[in-house]
């Protein structure tokens, strides 16, 4: 099984998911600023999901960078990840169109939690199939910690959505920032604070 | 004729088919659990079709892995397969939106039967063009048997749809499982039972 | 300028065009055979356009197979071709939804004529940039003749649409067949008849 | 980090953006020339945006052609560019559907200004990461000047939209022409005039 084709297929699916989300930003039929302003929640939801899908694309790339053997198991756990990612546009559209109503924010949290779990399964399998699982695992330890923090944050965000949705929103943004900002910068901030 | 470009094009088309299906899961305008629950048949249909398209993508990859010569005939039988695959989102949407009404389940069966026949034609042609057709055919014998079982199941499912649709549904799931579960595991189960 | 990236981009655009056309086959809200039967013109239009886009993809591949230098002119004439190809789904949808009304059939003819002209311009430029333009032109002479027959047929089909649309339809099918059937078979038929 | 995968992903996203724009040209339900004529503003908007996205694709290719190292910063500034490009279909649709109403033309200007700024940031970062930043910068000096002229034109076009939209339209077309016409031809015209 060829790694290139699995990467190309995954890239294609992620590129399409990221782009069809923009179809949820429906062109308004009126030409005033209010009709644009009304789209702000849809726009913010789109921006957030765009960033999350960008993070998955980057991490996916790193994960497959080091491996050479693609087993049938890796193929299917990868498709499992793509399946859950493909549901993000739906959750994004529902949340944006309904101006962050509690249940839609909770579902958005679920829509982020599921691919995170799928990614965890994929990563575990890739590590197992690696020639030097221990060296690989050590290299991905930081990723692992980040992944676990993310899972906790998603679950918190789902629960918080029913009390006060802005807390969920802040959690979604913080997790995204944690993945975007390179590790060295985070370490620097921590060492400066201690 | 370059194999890489045929593979890349096929991957692109399958990636788009698999992703535009999700557009059938229309964002509800209400924010209650009932509106989500009403989408369950659409979601289940999407999941099933996602798995089937994943199976085709995997099998397509295996089929083209061993060959080097792409004739005009292979190009057109491959486009024939992509054409029938491209109709799966339509059948999926019709079945999901109408909560598995008999005629929609039957059409879904037809939508699975047609690419299965197209794949059979493609496989036959690829074997013919192969340098060592006999060795290749032997290696694909298991695939062939699975393909024939699938065809019978699809036809059964189409007929059963008019009597009792759950039987068709079970047949669709069983065929998918037969392709997902690696051959060795199936053999193991059979040898344990005997 | 890298040939691979131009090919990959063109493949991507053609793959998306071919697949979004299927979105024009709208899922009916009723579950009877009549609602399926009503989609027949849409289905036939889709099938025809799918074949035409497949032909363009194959020819595009052959055209770029032999060249190595991509000039700025080739890039833009290639984008010109992709632009006209991207309008085929619109013309297909309009023709299918309106059951082959004369004006829609004429516009479909225009939608086929424009990319044919764009392809002609692209081919002329590619030949010019070729290291051995004469050898290349000779190899593509048959393509050239086919291209000119196609142009005449499209113009005829546009004119005929206002008198008797089935003639236009037959012309569209004949042109498609001329491109699908390999040259050798055509020659064989002609030599048998003479 | 692998350059090929970043290029392939960017190509995929741009190919999808360029193609989903055509979905904004909604198939009319009537079959007369007037219903086609009514689509003219939508068609013109689509053509203009198609050209702009083609320009970005070409420039993106040139920018990444010379580099080998992809840092995390390049990855994210590239995603930033793709994000703003992905909003062009929305602005295109709004402008086309509302027949170039002032506010829609101004927003279209913003939709062109944002990716231009994003491209500027990306280019600056790519130059920094280059092995020979000075040689690279010199080679891209003409691009830089063009980029700065474009930014000024976009801002002018946004302001002019509220006074007389045709001026904005002319500015959009002129900027596009500046990028399409190869530098040598522009130089020739200038040297002939002086």
Which structural category fits the helices and strands of chain A? mainly alpha
Biggest chain contact: B-C, 32 and 30 residues
Give the H and E element order of chain A: HHHHHHHHHH
List the domain count of chain A as a whole number.
1
Please identify the oligomeric state. Answer: homotetramer
Tell me how many strands of chain A there are: 0
Radius of gyration of chain A (CA) equals 18 Å
Work out the helicity level of chain A: over 70%
Gross morphology of chain A is globular
Termini Cα gap of chain A: 48 Å
Characterization of this structure:
Four copies of one chain form a homotetramer. In chain A, α1 packs parallel to α4, α3 packs antiparallel against α5 and α5 packs antiparallel against α6 (102-129). By secondary structure, chain A is mainly alpha-helical. Helix content of chain A is 80%, strand content 0%. Chain A has one domain. The radius of gyration of chain A is 18 Å and the shape is globular. Chains in contact: A-B, A-D, B-C, C-D. The B-C interface holds B 1-2, 5, 8-9, 12-13, 16-17, 20, 23-24, 72-73, 75-76, 79, 82-83, 86-87, 89-90, 93-94, 97-98, 101-104, 107 and C 7-8, 11-12, 14-16, 18-20, 22-23, 25, 27-29, 31-33, 36, 47, 50-51, 54, 57-58, 61, 65, 180, 182.
List the helices and strands and how they pair.
Four copies of one chain form a homotetramer.
Chain A: H1 3-20, H2 33-37, H3 40-65, H4 72-85, H5 88-97, H6 102-129, H7 133-139, H8 141-160, H9 165-180, H10 183-193
Helix pairs in contact in A: 1-3, 1-4, 3-5, 3-9, 4-6, 5-6, 6-8, 6-9, 8-9
